[in-house]
Amino acid sequence: RTMAWRNIELLLENRTSFRHFRVPQVFFSPDTPVNYKLEFVKGYADVAGNIRPANRDQGGRHRVRLDTLNYATNWNLPVQLCLLLQEHLNVPVPNIVWGHPNLGREWREHQLNIYAEDFMSVGFYFDYKQAVLEELAQSN
Predict the structure, then answer these.
(1) At 68, which helix (H) or strand (E)?
(2) Nearest partner of 76 among 8, 15, 32, judged by Cα
(3) Chain segment 43-77, per-residue pLDDT in tens
(4) What are phi and psi of 3, to 5 degrees?
(5) How many Å apart are CA 55 and CA 79, to the nearest integer?
(6) What span, in angstroms and rounded, lies between the C-alpha atoms of 94 and 96?
(7) Got the DSSP string for 21-73?
(8) How confident is the model at residue 101 (pLDDT cuts 50, 70, 90)?
(9) Which of 6, 66, 111, 130 is the most buried (most CB within 10 A)?
(10) d(C-alpha 75, C-alpha 72), whole Å
(11) SS3 for 28?
(12) What is the pLDDT of residue 52?
């Protein structure tokens, strides 16, 4: 247990399970540099984001999908991610697809859908994801 690990746990408010995870409050502070917020979202996207040709909307525009595991105690996480993207990083989020049986999705994951060209300002660190993002953003 290093000092760095202790600091990470402090920032995450000791929430290390998807069941209880929240976007740390520090990322909503106007004093937190935008590049820190960007790095957080980029890291989240590397783990829980996907970009592929099948993620098109009805008009054929390509989207990035950020998934959140569906669990009773983390329903606010998609809203927090949406707020961070829209209000702090100026990345529009056209919709959140909720994983709920009443919406015809059983108990699947929640998905934030973001158009590929808008997500270019965030991007991915994984080279293969970034390459697909760039290709599909240009085709929109």
Answers:
(1) strand 62-68
(2) 15
(3) 999 999 999 999 999 999 999 999 999 988 889 99
(4) -65, -40
(5) 20
(6) 7
(7) ----GGGG-TTS-HHHHHHHHHHHHHHHEEEEEEEE-TTS-EEEEEEE---TT
(8) confident
(9) 66
(10) 6
(11) helix
(12) 94
pLDDT range class, residue 14, cuts 50, 70, 90: confident
**pTM, two decimal places:** 0.91
* SS3 label, residue 54: strand
Residue 63's alpha-carbon distances to 27, 95, 105, in angstroms, are 24, 11, 19
Q: Averaged over 98-107, what is the pLDDT?
A: 87
- The structure tokens listed for 19 are 């069941």
CA–CA dist 10, 13 (Å, integer): 5
Q: Which of 80, 75, 114 is nearest to 98 (CA)?
A: 75
Tokens of 70: 């569906």
Do residues 105 and 99 lie in contact, with contact meaning Cβ atoms separated by under 8 Å?
A: yes
Query: Which amino acid is located at 101 in the chain?
Result: P
Structure tokens at 78: 């998609």
Q: Cα–Cα distance between 98 and 117 in angstroms, integer?
A: 23
In the structure encoding, which two tokens stand for residue 73, read together?
Answer: 């105690």
* Residue at 48: amino acid letter: A
